[in-house]
Amino acid sequence: MDFFTLLKLKGFPVVEAGQKFKTFKEASKSADWIERQKMNAFEFHYKRNTSYRRFVGKYPASWKDIPVINKDIIRQHDISLTPDRNAYGKYYFRQTSGSTGKPFNYALDYFSHALTWHLLSDRYNSVGVSFNDLQARFFGHPYSFKAKITEKIKDGLGNRIRFNTIDLSEENMERWLNTFSKNPFVYIYGYAYPLVAFAKYLKQKGMQLKSAAPLLKVCILTSEMCSIEEQHIVEEAFGVDVYNEYGASEAGIVGFGRNNRWELSRELMFTEILDENNEPCAKGAVGKVVLSPLHNTGTPLLRYEIGDMAAIDEDENGPYLTRLQGRMEEMAILKSGKKLAGDTLFLYVFKEFARYSTEVTEYKVVQTGLDSFEINIVASRDLSNEEVELLKKLSVHSLGVEVKIDVVRKKELDRTLMGKFKRFERQF
């Protein structure tokens, strides 16, 4: 089934969004259009979201007077996820994965969500692939049987085959290679870490992935950072160009590109780089990435600080994002030599644990030895013995081997100056 036909059946206004996106693509070349759109976006939320208006206070004299916000500010001021009267179409409620330690709830209206898919389609088409092409999806598996079945159905409808990215053993990578040889994949999409590991495995074997999958055209990375050196390793091992899709799930796609140059999503997003005083940085200078979705009528994410650092530079084709500093995933290494993607593994552990206990609001897992882990949690109360044992059991099951696990409740977890931390860290 055509991807956009599927979205239409799910209630998304894909035809209207597609027509609007074509208009926005041309209009976004004008700085005046972007200025108008960002103020229109602010006025919408200021007029229609009482809690946001209360937080902002007096109507600002200029854009720079609009306060910069983040997840904690939205929570602290109890800013509503949607306008006072939800008469602006259907809303799509989601939750972030929690890279700052605490998942964040937000809402997108169906129209702006459809716009995001059209933007991605435009960027994918620019590198020779489409959503209807067979995708090798390196995105991990959910924990529960029900969730796995749901994802399997979505993968089938979306014309994609999902790979187990938690197990990074050579045996599993040989299974990946076998899957590529049996399926006409056109592009790869997924997390950088397992794909870099797969590329290194292929290099050791002295082979190129395109020889097993001759229809393969491109590899698109998402979520984690990938250095230029790692990008070159993947390109050499796969035999195709590597692109990176960068964004924040709650705000949208910020940029798409390669070689540390991301074309900004000017059609849908106003991106600023600000210093510690929330003043604009000079061109090419690194600062905080601050986003303002131009069309979303759900959660008022205006001048929204996402916790990453980057710079904006410009050439004859316009402004682009560069020098991006985001997160890189770390591996758990077991006595057997087995390597596992730590952040992804424990993300699913805690998703499953949340089905039985909702007390944990933040967590960080530290591997202290080849057979020992410490799980630090922030919770509203001490976990019961049964809850602690369940968390340990889920962790051991995911790791696939008996290990020592200590669960430690803390008042707060250490963070970087940007408010982020690695949810998984290896300390040996």
Q: How many beta-strand runs?
A: 19
Profile the largest sheet. Answer: 11 strands, mixed
CATH domain class name of the largest domain? Alpha Beta
Query: In which range does the helix fraction lie?
Result: 25-40%
What's the helix count? 13
**Strand composition percent:** 25-35%
- Tell me the span between the first and last alpha carbons: 48 Å
Low-confidence stretches: none
CATH superfamily annotation of the largest domain: ANL, N-terminal domain
Q: In one word, what is the shape? A: globular
Please state the CA-atom Rg, rounded to the nearest Å: 22 Å
CATH topology of the largest domain: Rossmann fold
Gist?
By secondary structure, the chain is of the alpha/beta class.
Q: Could you characterize what this model shows?
A:
This protein has 428 residues and is α/β, with parallel strands linked by helices. It has helices at 3-9, 14-27, 31-48, 50-56, 71-76, 110-126, 145-157, 170-182, 192-205, 209-212, 228-238, 342-353, 385-399; strands at residues 91-95, 105-109, 135-138, 160-162, 187-191, 218-222, 241-248, 252-258, 261-264, 269-274, 287-293, 304-315, 318-325, 331-333, 339-341, 360-369, 372-379, 404-409, 424-426. The N and C termini lie far apart (48 Å).
Features:
35% helix; 13 helices; alpha/beta; GMP Synthetase, Chain A, domain 3
